[in-house]
Amino acid sequence: MRTTLRTAKFEIGQIVKHRIFPFRGVIYDVDPVFANTEEWYQSIPEEIRPHKDQPYYHLFAENAETEYVAYVSEQNLLPDDSGEPIRNPQVKEYFRMTPDGRYEEIERATH
Q: For position 101, what pLDDT does the model report?
């Protein structure tokens, strides 16, 4: 079986919202195809389970109640054009906000 890799539709630092569920977030990493556990994948109800052969995005996410990290398929994301900043506290560790309201990655030291 051959897998064709697609170019990611969204980019790191972009604010997106979920197509079905009421949450939004900023992208901090992208996997070209599904790269989580099979247990996690099987926990998604079959009728809404996305295909594995598409980009998956790591988000610093939030909903009305809380902030968290989410892993979402490309087919379930839409651009968020609300102009509202993301309140997830982890965002400040990875990004700075530019004057035009975008998130830009911070250079971080690595070992």
A: 81
Residue 2 lies in a domain: no
Whether residue 5 is contained in a domain is answered as no
Q: How do residues 43-70 score in pLDDT, each as one tens digit? A: 999 999 999 999 999 999 999 999 999 9
Residue 39: enclosing H or E segment and its boundaries?
A: helix 38-42
Does residue 86 form part of some domain?
A: yes
Q: What phi and psi values does residue 22 have, to the nearest 5 degrees?
A: -80, 70
Instruction: Tell me how far apart the alpha carbons of residues 45 and 40 are, in angstroms, rounded to a whole number.
Output: 11
Q: Say how far residue 23 (Cα) sits from the centre of its chain.
A: 11
Q: Give dist(CA 15, CA 82) in Å, integer.
A: 9
Residue 94's domain spans which residues? 15-105
User: pLDDT value at position 102?
Assistant: 85
pTM of the model: 0.89
Kindly report the average pLDDT of the chain as a whole number. 91
- Quote the number of domains for the chain: 1
